[in-house]
Design goal:
Helices cover 34% and strands 18% of the residues. The chain has 6 helices and 9 strands; from the N terminus they run E-H-E-E-H-E-E-E-E-H-E-E-H-H-H. The strands form 2 sheets. A 6-stranded antiparallel sheet has the order 1-4-5-6-3-2. A 3-stranded antiparallel sheet has the order 7-8-9, covered by helices on one side. The protein is an alpha+beta fold and 214 residues long. The protein has helices at 32-36, 71-77, 120-151, 169-175, 180-187, 195-208; strands at residues 27-29, 46-50, 59-64, 80-82, 87-90, 100-103, 109-113, 154-158, 164-166.
């Protein structure tokens, strides 16, 4: 995952109930500004096929019915697609494997499961181990880092800032600061690290901000 760990660089959590989706123009958007202004680069029809070889994250291969829109353009240049019913995010653009993540919901914070590619700092650690201990160092260091990445496989994407982070209690506590009542309730939770608790508060933020246009 090129430069992923806590970068300002896993989901738009977009629920039809969370946003005025009838204002979103179907099409493919190259960046957040295009999406915010409802001005897609491509408004042609797309097809979405589940990539069955990868379960986390569950990815879709996207192709265009317009043959002038090449697969390379879709995979490298498109950030997200709205087809009128679902929101698709280019996972490669946020440090995951090639494909598009589909979200049933839409809002300020989007969460998903994923396995990031290695960060540059992790690649450096593997290289140093290899130089110091040879093939054995490479094998051990790679195994440790891959294990670490797989343990942290819940992510949250801020559709407002374009930043992706691990979904943790520390992160949720931070984004809850402007929401005094929710923040106080979260501090009283007995199991702040439970994914069900973290997701519940993301959904509550999305509900409160449902009148905003992301």
């Amino acid at each position: 995952m090129k430069k992923f760990i806590f970068l300002a660089f896993m989901t738009f959590t977009f629920s039809v109930a969370y946003c005025q989706v009838n204002t979103i123009r179907p099409g493919a958007y190259k960046n957040r500004n295009e999406f915010k202004n409802h001005n897609p680069s491509f408004d042609c029809d797309f097809t979405f096929k589940n990539k069955e070889d990868l379960k986390i994250p569950k990815l879709y291969k996207v192709t265009s019915k317009n043959h002038d829109v090449k697969s390379s353009t879709i995979n490298k240049e498109i950030l997200c697609i709205w087809d009128g019913d679902h929101f698709y995010l280019n996972s490669k653009r946020i440090g995951m494997k090639k494909g598009f993540i589909r979200f049933e919901t839409y809002g300020k914070y989007l969460y998903f499961q994923g396995i990031p590619q290695r960060a540059f700092s992790q690649d450096d650690a593997v290289l140093n181990s290899t130089m110091a201990f040879g093939l054995a160092g490479w094998a051990v260091s790679s195994a440790v880092i891959n294990s670490q990445n797989k343990k942290n496989n819940l992510f949250v994407y801020s559709s407002e800032t374009g930043v992706t982070n691990y979904l943790t209690s520390k992160y949720v506590a931070m984004i809850l600061r402007p929401y005094t009542e929710l923040s106080m309730k979260f501090e009283l939770e007995e199991d702040k690290d439970a994914s069900r608790v973290l997701i519940r508060y993301l959904n509550r933020i999305n509900e409160q901000d449902s009148s905003s246009d992301y």
